[in-house]
Write a structure and sequence with these properties.
Length: about 210
């Protein structure tokens, strides 16, 4: 019992040294280790320069960082990516809060508009078709990229068919027009030939 207070009296307070060491080592005071065998020498250090010397000698050391493993967190994340631990009991927010419909709409719009831009720049669709499809996309006509692409191919095929029919009709019209003109020319030729043949007969009768 008697040597208790004596022991307390012989202990040296190293609060100043710990604070200075923390500043020198650029860490917290809890990360500073002071060599218990060199307490007297450490207690003599009352400046940053002295502390630096002690650090160099190895009497004051910065403790290593505690290891905080993320292996369990990685395993849990990998399981969640597979769809585990996502049942009703694990859900905190509402469906709308967890994945807002606005966000889904924005994603869909961006995907479809990007496709339209790409097709327009590649000259696969003209500006008129682009504008028409852009408005349809905004009006929620196409639910995904595949449907929009199918619609584009279908519309292009329809336009080609209409163009082919129009060309066919035009060629038939020009052909018929040419045939009519030839017929008229032949008729005029026949009439001219008939009148030319009839003219000499009429002059012969008049002479008699």
């Amino acid at each position: 019992k008697a040597d208790g207070p004596l022991r307390r009296a012989t202990m040296v307070a190293l609060k100043l040294q710990k604070r200075l060491a923390a500043e020198v080592l650029k860490c917290g005071k809890r990360k500073v280790w002071l060599d218990p065998n060199e307490v007297n020498e450490i207690s003599m250090a009352n400046s940053r320069q002295n502390i630096r010397k002690l650090v160099k000698d190895g009497f004051v050391i910065r403790k290593p960082q505690n290891i905080h493993s993320r292996s369990r967190a990685r395993l849990a994340a990998a399981a969640k990516a597979k769809g585990r631990h996502t049942g009703y009991g694990k859900r905190r927010g509402t469906r709308e809060a967890r994945l807002p419909t606005t966000l889904l709409w924005m994603r869909r719009m961006r995907v479809l508009r990007r496709l339209l831009r790409k097709y327009r720049d590649a000259k696969k669709i003209d500006k008129h078709m682009y504008h028409e499809l852009y408005l349809k996309v905004k009006g929620n006509v196409y639910k995904n990229k595949r449907v929009l692409m199918e619609s584009i191919h279908k519309e292009k095929a329809e336009k080609l068919r209409e163009k082919a029919i129009a060309e066919q009709f035009e060629s038939r019209r020009t052909k018929n027009k040419a045939a009519r003109l030839r017929k008229l020319e032949r008729r005029e030729e026949r009439f001219a030939h008939y009148f030319d043949a009839a003219a000499p007969k009429a002059t012969g009768k008049s002479k008699k």
